[in-house]
């Protein structure tokens, strides 16, 4: 552990220790959820006072890389997944490109009648048949997002007859294969309290914040293709928006 400090000599001790621990976290030597040795043990290993060690840990806690459980110890935090919402990209492929382990679990796929909000978003009549596709996205072993997508059964009548688990991994490609290339989307984000069934699927306490999203996708001609309800874990999911002038 002390060898890690050689690259950043000349800096104050607490910064050198902080950067050493950060390097071990980001490099995967310290894994998410792992408990760190006690402050006394770490102070001894690094050859510093407990006060200096605490300053290093405090910076990493403020940064969100560590968290402390009172009376238990200090742990490596589960890192938030920051999604860029300025572009429409495939979630699974984007995650893999970033070196993340991502899975998708099919929760439900069925033909149903469009309720008011879904019908309005897709320019249908209430009661028209739509496909409901519900999936759970799992990132680094942690359930992170529930997607509940709706699309017109008339336009996509063969979806439920195909390999749903494979098609669901890239709906944008599936829509395009049917002649509906998505070019833009409109979405709304809000913070919400979590419902019992959602909390159970996401494996979180009901006090955990929820980042809720509604989204409609359109072709270049303005044809609505998909309406989506999305439930994201607020403790693991954040949104990045690129602002320009």
Defining key terms:
single chain, 245 residues, alpha+beta, Arc Repressor Mutant, subunit A, disordered N terminus
Please, could you describe this protein's structure?
The protein is of the alpha+beta class and 245 residues long. It has 2 domains: 2-76, Winged helix-like DNA-binding domain superfamily/Winged helix DNA-binding domain (Arc Repressor Mutant, subunit A, Orthogonal Bundle); 81-240, Chorismate lyase (3-Layer(aba) Sandwich), CATH 3.40.1410.10. Helix content is 27%, strand content 33%. It has 8 helices and 10 strands. The strands form 3 sheets. Strands 4-5-6-9-8-7 form a 6-stranded antiparallel β-sheet. A two-stranded antiparallel ribbon has the order 1-2. A hairpin with a 2-residue loop joins strand 5 and strand 6 (142-152). The longest helix has 14 residues, at 13-26. The radius of gyration is 23 Å and the shape is elongated. The chain starts with 12 loop residues before the first helix and ends in a 5-residue tail after the last strand.
Brief write-up:
The chain has 245 residues and is α+β, with helices and mostly antiparallel strands. The chain has helices at 13-26, 39-46, 50-63, 91-97, 116-121, 164-167, 171-177, 196-202, and strands spanning 66-69, 73-76, 81-84, 102-113, 129-139, 142-152, 182-192, 210-219, 224-233, 237-240.
**How much of the polypeptide forms β-strand, as a percent range?**
25-35%
Which homologous superfamily in CATH is the superfamily of the largest domain?
Answer: Chorismate lyase-like
CATH class of the largest domain: Alpha Beta
Summed over residues and divided by their number, the pLDDT gives a mean of: 85
Number of domains: 2
Sheet with most strands? 6 strands, antiparallel
Order of helices and strands: HHHEEEHEHEEHHEHEEE
- CA(first)-CA(last) distance: 46 Å
CATH T-level fold name of the largest domain = Chorismate lyase
């Amino acid at each position: 552990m002390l060898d890690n400090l050689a690259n950043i000599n000349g800096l104050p001790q607490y910064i050198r220790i902080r950067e050493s621990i950060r390097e071990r976290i980001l490099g995967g030597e310290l894994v998410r959820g792992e408990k760190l040795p006690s402050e006394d043990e770490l102070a001894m290993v690094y050859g510093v006072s407990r006060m200096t060690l605490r300053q290093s840990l405090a910076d990493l806690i403020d940064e969100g890389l560590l968290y402390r459980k009172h009376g238990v110890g200090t742990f490596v935090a589960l890192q938030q997944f920051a999604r860029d919402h300025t572009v429409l990209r495939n979630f699974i492929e984007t995650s893999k490109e970033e070196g993340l382990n991502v899975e998708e679990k099919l929760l439900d796929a069925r033909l149903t009648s469009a309720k008011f909000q879904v019908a309005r978003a897709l320019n249908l009549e209430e009661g028209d048949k739509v496909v409901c596709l519900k999936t759970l996205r799992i990132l680094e072993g942690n359930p992170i997002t529930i997607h509940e997508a709706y699309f017109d059964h008339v336009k996509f009548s063969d979806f439920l007859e195909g390999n749903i688990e494979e098609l669901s991994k890239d709906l944008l490609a599936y829509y395009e294969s049917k002649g509906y290339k998505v070019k833009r989307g409109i979405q709304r984000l809000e913070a919400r309290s979590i419902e019992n069934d959602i909390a159970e699927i996401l494996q979180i306490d009901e006090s955990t914040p929820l980042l809720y999203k509604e989204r409609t996708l359109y072709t270049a001609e303005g044809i609505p293709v998909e309406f989506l309800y999305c439930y994201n874990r607020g403790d693991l999911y954040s949104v990045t928006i690129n602002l320009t002038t």
